Amino acid sequence: GARIGILGGGQLGRMLSVAAARLGFQTHIFDPSLTPPAGHVADRHTTAAYEDAKALKAFAADVDVITYEFENIPTEALDILETIRPIRPGREALRVSQDRLTEKSFLQGLGLRTAPYADVTDMASLEQAVAQIGTPAILKTRRFGYDGKGQARINTAEDVAKAIADMAGAPAILEGFVDFSHEISVIAARGMDGQVACYDPGENVHRDGILHTTTVPARLSGSQRLDAVLLAGQVLNALDYVGVMGVELFVTSDGLIVNEIAPRVHNSGHWTQNGCTVDQFEQHIRAVVGWPLGEGERFADVVMENLIGSDIARVMQLSQDKHTAIHMYGKSEAKPGRKMGHINRITAHKA
Ligand code: ATP
Ligand code: MG
Ligand code: MG
């Protein structure tokens, strides 16, 4: 069988490795840390920095195709890798999603709706942006933000100075606050033949900026559900995308607004592990090796809950529930805010 190279050895890389192994593929993880979660389950692991050209070349030469579990891979590393092996999903998806400004203009270019936004580089441009967009608003770093990090809420004019200080000089965008009723995401996949498969949208609840639960089915009308899935397909087709993508959406009284896209398997898609025949991890591996995609049909109602930091103390208690599947990431240290594992609780079986 082929060997799949995965950039990043966190829990997503780990679950991709497990899925690859199940399909008969070997995996090779590239991750700077000595003991990444994926390191325990992958066939090989290169411990090197993304700046290490020699290590990148050896890694690429050892695999047949390269994929990734996070979108912030340095461009220079990708330049080296892509001369040796194909990178899937491709460069365009990474370019668009690495920068919130590029991402928003791409989405609007497709005719999709986003929060109103403006480019912010300094105090003067922030003041101008606040005047244009109004409050409440959120200032976000353009790059490298995740789990709500690199964000500052602006409710009044007094928050402006603190918000700009929080950005520490990093390029940012100001987003108008979307008055949503709830948040959903579509986990969608596109194969090498252009076939698209979407999972049923999940409803997401965040706590302290971190995803707390995803519930399927989400509260959506039939037409909202169709809108969500069609919109996700449109994004994938526009990028000539190969692999799984997470599309985060706000549900409002006058339609769906796109929050952000993630060119990879997504935390809000973990429910598929116990709710679908082919889960998002197998789907992603199928896509990047050129296999046909699974259908994505859901056979259960599921609540996924992240186990964050000290939540792992509850694992033994959670294991008493016979309808709860437990997924642990093998991380030794339970720091606050650190994703240690998740559970998928089956709440109903579909007929
Ligand atoms: P992730 O871990 O999903 O990558 P992130 O750090 O990239 O998160 P966002 O998804 O942009 O951050 O924002 C985190 C959460 O903050 C959103 O899921 C939503 O609850 C809230 N939020 C972000 N932007 C807006 C907005 N413009 N209006 C209202 N709420 C927002
Ligand atoms: Mg994000
Ligand atoms: Mg998000």
Automatic annotation (TrEMBL):
It comes from Tritonibacter litoralis. This is N5-carboxyaminoimidazole ribonucleotide synthase. It comes from the Bacteria. PANTHER family: PHOSPHORIBOSYLAMINOIMIDAZOLE CARBOXYLASE (PTHR11609:SF5), PURINE BIOSYNTHESIS PROTEIN 6/7, PUR6/7 (PTHR11609). Residues 104-289 form the ATP-grasp domain. Catalyzes the ATP-dependent conversion of 5-aminoimidazole ribonucleotide (AIR) and HCO(3)- to N5-carboxyaminoimidazole ribonucleotide (N5-CAIR). Pfam families: ATP-grasp, PurK_C, RS_preATP-grasp-like. The gene is purK. Its EC number is 6.3.4.18. GO terms for cellular component: cytosol. It catalyses: 5-amino-1-(5-phospho-beta-D-ribosyl)imidazole + hydrogencarbonate + ATP = 5-carboxyamino-1-(5-phospho-D-ribosyl)imidazole + ADP + phosphate + 2 H(+). ATP binds at residues 100, 140, 145-151, 175-178, 183, 206, 259-260.
